[in-house]
Amino acid sequence: MIKVVILGAGNVATHLFKAFQKSDKVMVVQWFNRDLEKLIPFNNEVGITNGISDLESADVYFISVTDDAISEISEALPFEDRLVVHTSGTVNIHDLDKKNRRGVFYPLQTFSKSVDIDFKKVPICLETIEKDDYKLLKTAADSISDFVKKVNSDQRAALHLGAVFVNNFVNQLYRLAHEITESTGAEFDMLKPLILETALKVQDNSPFRAQTGPALRGDKSTIKAHLKRLQNEHHKDIYEILTQSIKNTHGR
Amino acid sequence: MIKVVILGAGNVATHLFKAFQKSDKVMVVQWFNRDLEKLIPFNNEVGITNGISDLESADVYFISVTDDAISEISEALPFEDRLVVHTSGTVNIHDLDKKNRRGVFYPLQTFSKSVDIDFKKVPICLETIEKDDYKLLKTAADSISDFVKKVNSDQRAALHLGAVFVNNFVNQLYRLAHEITESTGAEFDMLKPLILETALKVQDNSPFRAQTGPALRGDKSTIKAHLKRLQNEHHKDIYEILTQSIKNTHGR
Questions:
Q1: Is B153 helix (H, G, I), strand (E, B) or coil?
Q2: Does position B70 have pLDDT exceeding 90, yes or no?
């Protein structure tokens, strides 16, 4: 059994705790958070603490706090030569204090506290400096997810940036479509099957192959009609830049 | 039984034919296309023709051809006062020749010839000039889809434009993420669960509520790191405009 301590009580920490509770390879021996209040609901399931000097002995320490606080909390740990990992998409492995063995355990998914997630389908990006530490992390990760990969800090930063495009930016395009449709009294709901189909299509096809529409076809009259319809200058700018982007990609 | 004739042999026409073949309210009595070759595979299932003067009597004629050809083919029809509809998202109902009763039957989904689609889940936007024609179209549409709505030409144009945002533009963001991740040797596949989750999230939440990420949080250091990482000026422009868009929407 791999004994772990979780530090932090945000969305990732909470989902990680729940996933580990179901694992037969990992045991959460303690949960730390500066604000103990947030951990009270889990008091019956795990030992909780807000004292960094009270941390118990464990095989891995998971630092799952905001990016800015990772380095500081890794320095504050009152022990040496143990395996300490963070769960961030952007923070470099070397930002962890080198008095301990270091690693990264980054689950690449969007987490909401209120929405349960099937961790089996969450890709986990692993990085360590020592080979043996990798084996240990891999065993822990494999016990909660079917999709575990070795990913270095440069690749992880690229994945995190890619995630902003396919999650935050895509969601903003949904928002703009919402504004555009509702301004005429049309229902945004009518677009939902298309939203889902678009996401499903790239599960088995490359986005390059999946592309369709007026920009790809070079259909100038439709593009002109769309631009005329867009009253909001900001919407217009986004329409133009993404139309140009599609043309660039497909050599038109 | 509602007798229909389909004109055109593109993706929409073909999927519509297949859906009507399964309907117990609609019978396709004839399929017209200028290039008869494309209809040969369906020769055993339906009468086919490439002669516009040979069109049979029917309750509805579905013009499912490229936008530019709709008006012309509606003028070429050798009869009057029958119900003629087109299946386009952008063409106005009044672009159909007024010698016939007019309507629109727009299925709002992305169709590929090779991919089977569950038409039950395809929203269909209906518009007619006469009330009785609406009833007839509604009966036909309800027999193949669970999601039929009355939508006027202005609303339909807005939905079509919204569809470009949530389908073509979203797909292009997938493509950019593909470029960004693969440039470091990271796998685009790792983003696929996130892509799906992002689309699923707005099935039950508004895109406004579903938003997360650095732009929403006003996390300047992450935004700065992302911009530094983006070498491609075009990627950078898109990052900046969509980050600004999220800030505008959420009043930051």
A1: helix
A2: yes
Residue A111 and residue A18 in contact, taking contact as beta carbons nearer than 8 Å: no
| CA separation for the pair B196, B205 (Å, rounded) | 14
Min Cα separation A105/chain B (Å): 14
Closest Cβ opposite residue A166 in set B187, B194, B207: B194
**Beta carbons within 10 angstroms of residue A232's beta carbon:** 14
**ipTM exceeding the 0.90 mark:** yes
Q: Is B119 left (phi over 0), alpha (psi -120 to 50) or beta?
A: alpha
Q: For residue A109, give both structure tokens.
A: 């998914």
Radius of gyration of chain B (CA): 23
Read off φ and ψ for residue B44, nearest 5 degrees. -80, -15
Q: Torsion over CA of B25, B31, B32 and B36, rounded to 10 degrees?
A: 160
CA–CA dist B75, B84 (Å, integer): 11
Between chain A and chain B, the number of residue pairs with CB atoms below 8 A apart is 293
In chain A, residues with a C-beta closer than 8 Å to the C-beta of B244 are 234
Question: Which residue of A lies nearest to B197 if distances are taken between CA atoms?
Answer: A110
Residue B41 near residue B24, CB atoms below 8 Å = no
Asked if the model's pLDDT at residue B168 lies above 80, the reply is yes
Find chain A residues with C-beta within 8 A of B201's C-beta: 110, 115, 171
Task: Tell me which H or E stretch contains B102.
Answer: strand B101-107
Mutate which: B170, B231, B233, B245, vs A, most A CBs within 10 A = B170
CA distance B6 to B26: 12
pTM of the model: 0.91
Is B168 in contact with A110 (Cβ distance < 8 A)?
A: no
- Report which of A15, A18, A13 is spatially closest to residue A32, judged by C-alpha positions: A13
Task: With CB atoms and an 8 Å threshold, state whether B162 touches A154.
Answer: no
Set of chain A residues whose Cβ sits within 8 Å of the Cβ of B108: 190-191, 193-194
Q: How far apart are CA B137 and CA A200, in angstroms?
A: 30
> Would the CA dihedral through A158, A162, A167, A169 be positive or negative?
positive
What residues in B contact A203, CB-CB < 8 Å? 192, 195-196
Decide if pLDDT at A115 tops 80.
no
Rounded CA gap, A198 and B141, in Å? 23
State residue B5 phi and psi, 5-degree precision. Answer: -120, 135
The answer to whether the Cβ–Cβ distance between A149 and B190 falls below 8 Å is yes
DSSP-derived 3-state class of residue A199: helix
